[in-house]
């Protein structure tokens, strides 16, 4: 599997291999992948949609992963399959899609003998593009393949002319099992120019002879490389997808938390207002005092007959107190008393909704943490540009949480997971 930055010559390597296996020469160049100077000659190997604008080196010339199968002429028991992949660091910002294509192809192949990083030997240091490419691809590379099946092909230069810092690659990625150098002049220069000049043609032919010898060494290294299952590619891809899903879900849930807080505060406010109105309306009766005169008979005892007889009477002033219901206030009280039950239920429901959201976010955090821990076990996981962008968005959303206690808890949890990612 050939992987690397856009424009480093992965497709050219396919043409180099085509000429090796099909006995090409400077006078009879075999082409499987069209290029700036050559049209396809090996139609049985051609993939019609494999190339875009061959003059544009800022965009990947390969749109998908294509494989090319060859039989060894002197060792027919060996069959080789080389996979050309889309370039990473594409100016059309398709890295995520291209990575998915590479992983899908690797998984479908089931086994790989080698992952071959192709790098421009004329670049002394990593550009930001190369750094991001390497970091992004590291997140998808199984350790099982990196530790035993990683090779490096440095293009556009001979070994003595290479200025690429190999030590940096070993530090940033892994120590390759072997390193090969190819300048591939025969494919990168205009044939109309070097064929008409004897010295230039001699230089191209010498370059091709060196390339042939390098290919022999490269193929021997592949033959001696134990094939590895690509099952870990699938596991890594699934974990990466779940990681992205859980981060997005956490962003959505945190956004909902602020809405839930506002709804809860509104419910509490309505409850308080309703209770205040109830308090003001509970005295919906008033006392009325009425004064009136009551006639009281005055009895007189008849001494002869020993009995009381009516001897007349008198008026006595009396007072009577009674409660009068104020209908308007009573109706108001009854109405808000009925509302009180509904509002308390509403407040309780809003509180429960907030708790569910907070627990949901915490569940997302736990899933994110588990995914990262699992990825660290089976891949060269690192906190790349894409992951940093996702975490920045997560923190930005959490900063907007209006409840200070909840906001602090969210930011603390996010920071903990971010630190775990960087270890």
TrEMBL record:
Gene3D superfamilies: P-loop containing nucleotide triphosphate hydrolases
Any Pfam family the entry gives: MMR_HSR1
A GO molecular function held by the record: GTP binding
InterPro entries per record: GTP-bd, P-loop_NTPase
Residues in G domain copies: 2-131
Protein's name according to its UniProt entry: 2521_t:CDS:1
Native source organism of the sequence: Cetraspora pellucida
């Amino acid at each position: 599997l050939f992987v690397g930055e856009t424009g480093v010559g992965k497709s050219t390597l396919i043409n180099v291999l085509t000429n090796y296996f099909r006995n090409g020469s400077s006078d009879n160049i075999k082409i499987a992948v069209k290029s700036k100077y050559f049209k396809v000659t090996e139609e049985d190997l051609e993939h019609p949609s494999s190339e875009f604008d061959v003059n544009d080196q800022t965009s990947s010339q390969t749109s998908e992963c294509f494989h090319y199968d060859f039989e060894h002429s002197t060792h027919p028991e060996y069959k080789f399959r080389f996979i050309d992949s889309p370039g990473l660091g594409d100016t059309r910002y398709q890295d995520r899609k291209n990575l998915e294509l590479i992983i899908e192809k690797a998984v479908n192949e089931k086994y790989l003998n080698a992952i071959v990083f192709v790098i421009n030997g004329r670049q002394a240091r990593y550009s930001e593009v190369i750094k991001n490419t390497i970091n992004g691809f590291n997140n998808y590379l199984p350790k099982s393949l990196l530790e035993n099946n990683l090779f490096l092909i440095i293009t556009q230069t001979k070994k003595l002319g290479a200025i690429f810092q190999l030590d940096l690659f070993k530090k940033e990625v892994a120590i390759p099992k072997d390193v090969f150098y190819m300048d591939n002049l025969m494919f990168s220069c205009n044939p109309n120019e070097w064929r008409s000049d004897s010295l230039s043609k001699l230089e191209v032919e010498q370059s091709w002879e060196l390339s042939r010898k390098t290919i022999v060494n490269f193929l021997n290294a592949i033959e001696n490389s134990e094939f590895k299952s690509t099952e870990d590619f699938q596991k890594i891809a699934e974990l990466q997808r779940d990681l992205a899903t859980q981060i997005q879900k956490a962003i959505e849930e945190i956004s909902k938390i602020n809405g839930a807080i506002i709804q809860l505060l509104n419910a509490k406010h309505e409850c308080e207002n309703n209770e205040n109105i109830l308090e003001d309306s509970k005295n919906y009766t008033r006392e009325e005092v009425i004064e009136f005169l009551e006639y009281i008979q005055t009895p007189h005892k008849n001494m002869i007959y020993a009995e009381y007889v009516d001897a007349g009477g008198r008026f006595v002033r009396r007072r009577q107190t009674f409660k009068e219901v104020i209908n308007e206030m009573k109706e108001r009280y009854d109405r808000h008393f009925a509302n009180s039950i509904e509002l308390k239920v509403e407040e309780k429901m809003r509180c429960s909704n907030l708790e569910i959201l907070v627990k949901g976010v915490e569940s997302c955090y736990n899933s994110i943490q588990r995914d990262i821990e699992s990825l660290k076990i089976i891949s060269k996981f690192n906190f790349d540009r894409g992951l940093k962008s996702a975490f920045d968005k997560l923190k930005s959303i959490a900063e907007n949480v209006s409840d200070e206690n909840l906001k602090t808890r969210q930011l603390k949890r996010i920071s903990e997971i971010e630190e775990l990612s960087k270890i």
